[in-house]
Design a protein that fits this description.
It is a single chain. The protein is α/β, with parallel strands linked by helices and about 220 residues long. About 50% of the residues lie in helices and about 15% in strands. It contains ten helices and eight strands. Strands 1, 2, 3, 4, 5, 6, 7 and 8 form an eight-stranded mixed β-sheet that branches. Helix 4 links the parallel strand 6 and strand 7. The protein starts with a strand and ends with a helix. About 35% of the residues are buried.
Amino acid sequence: MGIPFCEGAAAAMRKGGAAMIRGREFDAAGGGGANLKGCNYYFLWVVRASEEDKLPNKFKEETQDKGLIVKWCPQLEVLAHHAIGCFVTHCGWNSTLEALSLGVPLVGVPQWTDQPTNAKYVEVWRVGLRPRVDEKGIVGRIEKEHCIREVMEGERGRDIKRNACKWKELTKEALSPGGSSYNNIEEFVTEISGLTWAGYHMKRRLQNLSKARPDMGMDPEEKRA
């Protein structure tokens, strides 16, 4: 099933699954602590030291058997772990791309700048869900909890996981030799290095040849020696 991983600093898991949530999910109506506890998943929650006092009262004690709260985590390594079942995120572009490239379903809770647009992409690409806000513009606890459950083990969650895996494979193709991202990076490097394509590939051929023939370019007398 996987673990929910929540951006802002928390990750939740159940039966080998996990989720991650970041440390700004503290408001009374939709705080990350309340919905993680309600979902009853194992979780990892990254909470900055400056925000620890905003955690729900006695939250650590009440969830110590299923939750781990830390001040920092290597996000890419966490998302790449096979136990992660979903990523609860504000949908910053970097976090969104990292989840897509690693095939992790998302629960998007955007707040400002590009985040609402990125969260819309998540919905359009069908790789996650976006909880609906109430009349005050706040994502309530029950709504967020519902989305986490749906992604982790609901009917729509199965379709979302399949789509997330497709994006993971597309990313691999794009980054492999001959893929679109690979070629774009190669072209960019060539352009900034001031080489023509012909000159660039000639240089590559010479480099490959020198690896295959370590004696290439040596003085004949050195070779005989």
